[in-house]
Design goal:
The complex is a heterodimer. Chain A is mostly helical. Chain A has helices at residues 28-56, 78-81, 96-120, 124-154, 189-222, 224-228, 232-257; strands at residues 160-165, 171-176. A two-stranded antiparallel sheet of chain A has the order 1-2. The model of chain A has no long low-confidence stretch (mean pLDDT 91). Chain B is mainly α. In chain B, helix 1 (17-43) packs antiparallel against helix 2 (48-69). The relative contact order of chain B is 0.06. Classes of the chains: A mainly alpha, B mainly alpha.
Chain lengths: 258, 109
């Protein structure tokens, strides 16, 4: 019978980096997803570290937490700012809504792992079922965030008296309701700016994730992956979706808890 | 194979009850850790100790998500380190910017 037909002499002494094998034991797509996520970790870390740097450059609120009033003289107490829940007006429920959002995102991460697990078993029915649940979780989270933003922008009934430098370089002292990029009722302008940029950038990632999930759901449902012979795309989108959850864990701690 | 053919060609493996149970177990851990954070948030004075507890618990959650949900612990060691080692740069970033922020505070007030 035929012996070695290859013209390259494959030495068995070749090391792991000598070529002819896969040292990282991962497909190109998965590897690149990991490296993309690494770069994204740096972007989010830069945002959160910038938050820390700007925060320590302001004096913290000194008094007892329950008598907190917003002022641009000191950094606000997050649990006094994020204390509203939908449908009930004027109730002080610190961090309850954001806890619900965290729960939703963690659960959608769990259904995503279940979809990936079903993909390993080539189980189309289970993959589509779990991807659909993940999709529902992602959309619900986005809806919650839209409400959270809406409330943050419109503000409380009373507002807060803020003194700041107006358009003509003059000192302005007025009652401010809600927040925009130049002034807000909760704290220094940077507080609202960082809120918009950090949660906004995260929400943007969730939005892209929802598009990708829909793509995976559709392709799994019509049998694209079955014809392809594997469900690796579900795994790759799963990595991205878990990353979105991972980032939220940090945003939750640094923006809402600390 | 005909592109229009939509019939199942892959062999479907049965559900592995043990694996699925483990996923739900980790989900429970993540939720419990979050609940513990809430308990601390409303029962402790703000300060370095509380913040350290928050950061510690956050890293626990991050570890579970990366290692279990993203299956990083099952990847080749080289891949794990090529993801984890670059994060060392963040240590510098945190130290440098927090120092910078503190100095701005001292200049302003």
């Amino acid at each position: 019978m035929s012996t070695a037909t290859t013209s390259i002499n494959l030495s068995s002494k070749r090391g792991i980096w000598g070529g002819g094998n896969e040292p990282l034991n991962a497909s190109y797509g998965k590897l690149m997803m990991w490296f993309f996520l690494l770069s994204d970790i740096f972007t989010f870390a830069a945002f959160l570290v910038a938050y820390g740097a700007i925060r320590v450059s302001y004096p913290p609120y000194g008094g007892p937490a329950d008598s907190f009033v917003g002022s641009n003289e000191y950094w606000p107490v997050p649990e006094m700012v994020f204390d509203a829940i939908p449908f009930v007006h004027g109730i002080h429920a610190p961090l309850v809504f954001v806890g619900l959002m965290t729960f939703i995102l963690i659960m959608s991460s769990v259904t995503m792992v279940l979809a990936v697990e079903a993909g390993h078993r080539n189980d189309r029915k289970d993959v589509t079922k779990w991807l659909l649940w993940t999709l529902v979780g992602g959309l619900t989270f986005l809806g919650c965030q839209a409400w959270e933003w809406g409330h943050f922008i419109h503000g409380t009934d009373g507002g807060a008296t803020i003194t700041f430098i107006g358009n003509f370089g003059n000192m302005v002292s007025e009652t401010v309701f809600g927040a925009n990029l130049s002034v807000n009722e909760y704290g220094p302008a940077a507080f609202a700016q960082l809120f918009f940029f950090i949660t906004g950038f995260h929400g943007f990632h969730v939005t892209i994730g929802v598009f990708l999930l829909f793509l995976a759901f559709y392709q799994a449902a019509v049998g694209v992956y079955e014809r392809r012979g594997h469900y690796e795309m579900v795994e790759k989108i799963g990595l991205y979706w878990h990353f979105v959850d991972l980032v939220w864990v940090f945003v939750f701690t640094f923006f809402y808890l600390i | 194979m005909d592109i229009q053919d939509n019939k199942s060609t892959l062999e479907v493996a049965p559900r592995n009850a043990e694996k699925i149970k483990k996923i739900w177990k980790i989900a429970a851990i993540l939720l419990i850790v979050t609940l513990i954070e809430y308990v601390f948030a409303f029962n402790m004075e703000r300060g370095v100790l509380l913040y350290s507890i928050f950061i510690g618990l956050t890293l626990v959650k991050a570890g579970y998500i990366m290692m279990e949900f993203m299956h990083l612990k099952d990847e080749a060691k080289v891949l794990v380190w090529s993801i984890m080692l670059p994060l060392i740069f963040l240590v510098w970033l945190i130290i440098a910017l927090l120092r910078e922020g503190t100095d701005i505070f001292l200049m302003r007030w």
